[in-house]
Write a structure and sequence with these properties.
Elements: E1 3-8, H1 15-21, E2 23-26, E3 29-32, E4 35-38, H2 45-52, E5 60-62, H3 66-76, E6 82-87, H4 95-103, E7 110-115, H5 120-135, H6 140-153, E8 155-159, H7 164-168, H8 174-183, E9 188-192, E10 195-200, H9 205-220, E11 226-232, H10 236-249, E12 253-259, H11 262-268, E13 273-279
Parallel strand pairs: 1-2, 1-6, 6-7, 11-12
Antiparallel strand pairs: 3-4, 3-5, 8-9, 8-13, 9-10, 11-13
Helix pairs in contact: 3-4, 5-6
């Protein structure tokens, strides 16, 4: 059985990696000043952060239209027997449901939609693993079972510099945003039951990053091989420095650097920093 792997743009898997592993990508969009841009196609992260500096143009995000899914799936029918379509959390976007709906509209191929229950490179870990297993000839059931094992061990924590984007985007309540702003809190956030919720409230950025380092240390100390990704919102130098520090602390963890692209940064804002990890 030949299996196609699809994910959406919020996994932020570099194009060369997608091409090498034959991962198909469907883009989400951001709307800025009335103009719609497909992320990773019309607008990259660097361009988006330039747009963010124009405070009069607060961006919004939108999921792919169902027609995009149908067109992609139909293009894969002639070469594949099945499609595994891996998407950002259904708790913050309708993209996963869009994949399910499109799967019922395409004949000749079975579509397995998979809810990552998260986003960014945490989601990317699933797509990359699925693509490697598909290349090895594994069945859809074997691949999904492996993703479920990864999900059980996956952790992700992130902090934002400014809570206003999360509040305006509806991802954080006004009360939480006001309290955080008044106290100058740098809350650690994570996903629970598919949505973003506070994990701990910490006063400074440095202390928040140190706390995340402690959390991965708890898992790294168990001796299980881990893969991890530092995710940043236009803070590449900070990410590189943090990576060097973490590699010294936890040499048994394979660290990489990724980024919050336009759609996710619409809600987190510039300066956000996170870390995700799972078993290798």
């Amino acid at each position: 059985m030949k299996i196609a792997i699809v994910t959406d743009s919020t996994a932020y898997i570099p194009k060369d990696v997608r091409d090498k592993l034959n991962i198909h990508m469907i883009p989400l969009s951001v709307v800025i000043g009335g103009e719609t841009y497909e992320e990773e196609i019309d607008l990259n992260a660097e361009q988006f952060y330039e747009e963010l500096k124009r405070k009069d143009r607060f961006p919004t995000s939108s999921q792919p239209p169902s027609g995009k899914f149908v067109a992609l799936f139909e293009s894969l029918v002639k070469d594949y027997d099945a499609i595994i379509s891996i998407h950002l959390s259904s708790g913050i976007s309708g993209t996963y449901q869009g994949a399910i709906t499109a799967g019922t509209m395409v004949d000749g191929v079975k579509v397995y939609a998979y809810d990552s229950e998260i986003s960014c490179m945490a989601q990317g870990f699933y797509a990359i693993e699925a693509a490697k297993m598909a290349a090895e000839g594994k069945s859809p059931e074997e691949i999904i079972a492996r993703l479920d094992v990864m999900k059980a061990s996956l952790r992700a924590y992130f902090m934002v510099d400014d809570l206003s984007n999360l509040q305006r985007g509806g991802r954080l309540t006004s009360a939480q945003a006001i309290i955080g702003s008044l106290l100058k809190v740098k809350p650690l956030l994570h996903f629970v039951d598919k949505v973003i919720v506070p994990f701990e409230k910490i006063r400074t950025r440095k202390k928040a990053m140190n706390r995340i380092a402690e959390l991965i240390g708890e898992d790294a100390s168990k001796g299980i091989p881990l893969q991890a990704s530092i995710i940043h919102a236009n803070r590449e130098e900070d990410a590189k420095e943090w990576k060097a520090e973490l590699e010294q602390l936890y040499p048994n963890v394979d660290f990489s650097i990724s980024y919050f692209g336009p759609v996710i940064a619409t809600h987190l804002g510039e300066g956000a920093m996170g870390l995700t990890w799972t078993i290798k």
